[in-house]
User: What shape does this take?
Amino acid sequence: MSATDLDNEVASHLKSLLPDDSYASLRDTVLPTLLSSIGAVAEALRTSSRVSQLGSSNSFGDDQLNVDVAAEDIIRKALSSCPSIVTASSEEDPVERMKTDAARVEGDLEHYTLAFDPLDGSSIIAPNWSVGTIIGVWKGTTAIGQNPENQIASVLGVYGPRTSAIVAVRHLSAITACFEVGINFAEERLATELLRPQVRLEEGPFKTRYFAPANMRAAAENHKYMELITHYISQKYTLRYSGGLVPDVVHALVKGHGVYISPVTEKSKAKLRRLYELAPIALIIECAGGVAVDPVTGERILGKAIENTDERGGLICGTSHEVRFAIHKLSG
Amino acid sequence: MSATDLDNEVASHLKSLLPDDSYASLRDTVLPTLLSSIGAVAEALRTSSRVSQLGSSNSFGDDQLNVDVAAEDIIRKALSSCPSIVTASSEEDPVERMKTDAARVEGDLEHYTLAFDPLDGSSIIAPNWSVGTIIGVWKGTTAIGQNPENQIASVLGVYGPRTSAIVAVRHLSAITACFEVGINFAEERLATELLRPQVRLEEGPFKTRYFAPANMRAAAENHKYMELITHYISQKYTLRYSGGLVPDVVHALVKGHGVYISPVTEKSKAKLRRLYELAPIALIIECAGGVAVDPVTGERILGKAIENTDERGGLICGTSHEVRFAIHKLSG
Assistant: This one.
């Protein structure tokens, strides 16, 4: 696959963000392939209603897994056409494996590691709510133990009434950017559209203010989280919380403001995987001008290296002053 | 369009629910046409990312309306092939109009009135969250002032990663039923699938309990609603609230339990339209074995006639004991 498979506008936009040919593979092959595979996952979801519907509370288990595995397979298969991706791991198969032929790729100076969550939000697949894919692209042959600055791109795929993706790029000679692409993949053909050339989290003030309180049950045993939620209600914030990490974060990005809170309390352990969920989302949020921090330390998610593929944490992200306020309330 | 356009399983299911030929048009034309038009609306949404995306907080207004109007047009056009539908009105055009040729339909003893909300959830279209269509089918030439028992069928279309619909049928010789259909409409061809022959709201107990608190801002000025929300949090209910009426109600239907609350308080007026939103949803919920009541009076939504197309109200619906508890807390 080459950049010509993308709509001209999207291809030009990528070219303007990554003019340096030391990123040629990322620009012309890796990112187009990832967008295409998101289109293919969307098509698989759209036509597999019977498989998906089995994932109800009545019949949880293996059948639900099928959709996750299908998404995993589609993305893995797509990667095989990207020689510059030498290592990949996913939330479904959380072991970094180098491609067996990776060492043999000659004349290609670009080497990338992919870390992805093929289908996030399995609990809301059965009722047909929007779900998503999360992908981080790292420079080099591993993401573990690396400076988070090496994560130079990330992509969130959103499967809803239509298919869309938020893409972030940030590294040295690349221009820091966050943009939205519309994707339509049907009958093996990919159509893309540049929807928002610049996704930005603004400071406001806004008439409507949004909050997304994840793991609200934790507030039952943590008075600070309960007080924070009560604060939002009494201040008449608007609740938008689907329980899908991708749609919940993308809501803020598309509306241009908002705060997402997934706290960690004594009785409620950290749930989100740093490699497959937190790091890619943090890059998107930061490239959009927002802030993504650890709810316990208040420090940037991207402030420290990821120790292993199963390392977990909480998340507060969104508009910077909203994130600062939430951290102040939870840790104060 | 005839029933043969439906998948055999869906057509047989409808035939088993409506064996009486006095419902032949409803069974063979009206319901298949409505399912088909939901497929067509899904296809329109899927391929109109640019129109939809304009509906962000930055550029609200006419552009957003385009998607609503497109859905309205698709459904209206479909109705023209249903001679037994003699009257129709919608949330976009809330005036009951009888078809000009309606009086001339001879030999057809079935006459139906349609009341529909073509695209509910405009505020969450831009971020690509699931949205829906709501349709009520009434016996006779008007829905206004009629016994709500005359609403003999209703349909909720869900536009998410795939397209699905919940259908309810209840009247005299018809068998009371609520079922789920998978819909795939592409290249002018409709494919349907019977996903859940019986959608049921069960009493539990369940390990996970869901709540969907609409208009949470009202709790800022209403301590009873605030206490109810605090109760759910302290009892560790799981929050699922997208802000889209259709996906929020369908979440409970597909999970098999849950409660949706849209209160009416002194400062927060009733918002949901009885004709286009409340009545069709109440029929679905009741046919699934649940309860749908007015939050002020505690009485059945379907307990009294609809006075005009703009009449509004609140809603508490879902699993019966959850609804009773919420009413008790809000009115107690």
Remarks:
- Chain B has a mean pLDDT of 90.
- Residues 24-46 of chain B form the longest helix (23 residues).
